[in-house]
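Appendix B. Chain record.
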Amino acid sequence: MDLDVFVSAHRAEWDRLDTLLKRRRRLSGAEVDELVVLYQRTATHLSLIQSSAPDPQLTGRLSQLVARARGAVAGTRTASWRDVTRFLTQGFPAAVYRSRHWWVPTALVSTVVAVLLAWWIGTSPDVQSSIAAPSELRELTRPGGEYETYYSSHPAAAFAAQVWTNNAQAAAMCLVLGVFLGLPVLWILFENMLNLGVGLGLMSSAGRLDTFLGLLLPHGLLELTAVFVAAGTGLRLGWTLVDPGPRSRRTALAEEGRAAVGMAIGLALVLFVSGAIEGFVTPSGLPTWARIGIGVAAELAFLAYVYILGGRAARAGETGDIEEAERSASVPTAA
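Structure tokens predicted for this chain:
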């Protein structure tokens, strides 16, 4: 595309659209129709420039013009309870469902890594001594030690809030940092599996693995699933940069990035439930089987939510992105 020729051919239309927008409250019926037509043409022009001859200054001007025109044509839209309901029943579960081919393998591989680390640590006194002194390890793993009192060392509400905040931040980092080819996501995931492996290995070597699992599983099933979903989605976002498919790289990254931001909000809600279980159920006086049962029930409810509601919404065309009317105009891209 010869950008100078293109601008010369269409500048008059853009200027006319700008003029109509400045006096949009005093437009005649014919002028309103003209504004709609010019808005559609300018949106197409913007897409052509972005895909063929991106120029930052011109793209910025036309993006602003298209946004103003969209506001004039469609009106200012405010969030409603309908949007919240759609997000919770369609958008979020569909986005998680669509990412299952990334987060399910991530969960399986990560679990294997954690188990291998736990076995290595639990069977190697040298590795254990490199973690901490024997007296410190005994303090960690003994009955009533730090691993057990950790969950009841603070008021339940404050502890649940702290856990929720930390986990939500970790999930959001996985989602956002995935854009860097997924490399930071792998590091965050490894750190989580290393911490898990250390706990499993040390408590196993002390003969108290059952106690550790009784404290971990009530909240850990749902918490780790949320982390795996975030990590898998972050890795998918990174891969979008490498292979955007039939979409332009800009369009693909925008679509997957918006869905990832929505997933960060949804996963924050999931981690809120996990944090509440960790703060109120894990340190409670309930029998171990009851505490684990609550954790298993929460995990199964989430998986049913994703695979039933999310699968149905995904098959109906839901992607987790914003509604089509609110997206920037784009043009088809050859595969």
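Further analysis of this model is presented in Appendix C.
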